[in-house]
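Example for tutorial group B:
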């Protein structure tokens, strides 16, 4: 590609990102009953993650500022059970991590399924970094399970391997988000491997079937949030 064409393409992408960042928020978030938030995607592109910030009041005796900022993330990659992609025009209910009827909060960033984003670049980067951790953790677990399946590794041996990897990887991780992503992949697989499951006839399900089930589950989780428009 001609280098000037490449520069123009890059500048166009930067301009698109800036235009999206300056546009009105594509998602509306409002308090609802029962300590929940009503979140509506007012656009046409599926939302896969967003970030909220809010202030926590400190006790009068505490030194320093009168409040401390905290945050809440909604992400289909890192919290697949609690957070699902939000299609255009769709409305979902999200449980608050704070008193959402009394505490002011701000929508800081939104990530879309096509890979674009809206909002504060620092918060977009934070969400993106957590998602990168999760993608890495999923890929590593899928790779190890696939190898074990091809080698005929027993469930007990694989559970021991995942326990050792879990301990090693979480100990080496210096980021709390990275540790959380490791726990929610290797930790979940380890729990399932350690649980002895029997068929309706009372016989123990073969290790190969258990391992294949875990591979299928992780792959489905990966492709549902990490492949945009059919491409990785």
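The residue assignment follows.
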């Amino acid at each position: 590609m001609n280098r000037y064409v490449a520069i123009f393409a890059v500048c166009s992408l930067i301009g698109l990102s800036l235009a999206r960042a300056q546009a009105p928020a594509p998602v509306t978030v409002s308090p609802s009953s029962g300590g929940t938030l009503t979140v509506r995607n007012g656009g046409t592109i599926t939302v896969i993650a967003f970030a909220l910030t809010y202030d926590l009041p400190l006790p009068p005796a505490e030194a320093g500022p009168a409040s401390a900022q905290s945050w809440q993330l909604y992400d289909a990659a890192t919290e697949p059970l609690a957070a699902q992609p939000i299609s255009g025009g769709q409305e979902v209910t999200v449980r608050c991590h704070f008193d959402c009827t009394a505490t002011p909060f701000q929508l800081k960033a939104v990530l879309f399924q096509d890979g674009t984003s809206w909002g504060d670049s620092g918060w977009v980067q934070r969400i993106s970094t957590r998602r990168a951790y999760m993608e890495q953790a999923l890929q590593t677990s899928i790779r190890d399970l696939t190898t074990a399946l091809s080698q005929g590794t027993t469930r007990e041996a694989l559970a021991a391997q995942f326990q050792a990897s879990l301990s090693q990887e979480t100990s080496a991780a210096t980021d709390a988000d990275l540790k959380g992503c490791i726990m929610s992949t290797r930790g979940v697989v380890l729990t399932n491997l350690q649980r002895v499951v029997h068929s309706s006839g009372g016989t123990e399900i073969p290790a190969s079937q258990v391992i294949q089930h875990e591979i299928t589950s992780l792959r489905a989780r990966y492709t549902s949030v990490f492949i945009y428009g059919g491409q990785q």
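The CA atoms of residues 17 and 116 lie 7 Å apart. Compare this with the pattern of hydrophobic and polar residues in the output above.
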